[in-house]
Amino acid sequence: MKLSEIINILNFYADEAYALPWDNSGIQVGDKNAVIHKILICLDVTENVIDEAVQKKCDLIISHHPLLFNPVKSIQNDSISRILKKAIKNDINIYSSHTCFDMSEKGMNKAFADHFMLSNVRALDCCAESFAALEIYVAKEYAQKLCKELYNAGAIEVKSCVSYEFNILPNNRSASFANTKQLFDSEDKISNFEEIKLEITCAEKNINKLLDALYTLYPNKTPSYRIIKLNEVNYGVAMGIVGDLPEKISLNLLVDKVKEYFSQKHIRTSFKYEQNEEIKRIAFCSGSGSSYLGKAKYFGAQSYITADCKMPDFIRASQIGIYLICPSHFSSEHNFVALIRDLLVNNEVNIEIEISSQSDCETII
Asked: Helix, strand or coil for residue 319?
């Protein structure tokens, strides 16, 4: 199975286009045409993980956190350089699915909501500012070909909305919205055809890729299209989650359940264990989600669970009246490896898949 095929499966559920601007999800090292025989899944690509991949003869590592965040200006003998050299020497491809997977319906936030059986669920941040819509008028018979090219260029969703009938007259190339029939056919003749409107949703940063695909199919004339910025949209691509527990539980019991879920003996909170209020609505964001503390409160959460909180976050939580529970960053994302494995298996990736034994980068003793 080619790496490109595996990436297509991952992108179907966690498209790289969803990644936040500062992120570097995607291929870190590799060749999309490489044939993959064995996969190793981990949270972080460390030297121990790359050694494990070599020892187990894995030719693809799928990690959550990208190996490369910053530009590599030289390859010498530091840790990143040693990993890169060993990966290239042993034909090991490295692919990372980071914030795009955090926002996926198959990601850690959805898994948390399912485990705690949350209802009345909504996102903390639907990332609406990252999306745009593209409206295009196209001859019905060419719509399928165009849709394929648009999906390859990064379209998230393509809808066929309205159908029109037009009569195109000889030598008149502005009789309809796009004259798509005559753009494809060089003959000047009277032709009756149906033209439909396609509505395409895409990540805003991919809009130029879609236009490039459009112009490739329309080499002789600019087609009619319209770009619309989406101000409020949620296609299941969201950061964080907030919802209601099946029933009210004590704050102490919630802490115990969170510790059990994240396999942590100890956990940081903004309150004393003796506080035993009953709560119903909670919020969660995997990884570093302290910036959504205010949104968690705004959407009615009585407790917010996220990692990497600093002292000012605990103080603010007390001030605005929300109970902050802070597992470690690693623990909040620990089930990434199992989720990715299940996603690949369920999509019939018939390749040996292993979870790295070196993924535990931290231990609570």
From this structure: helix
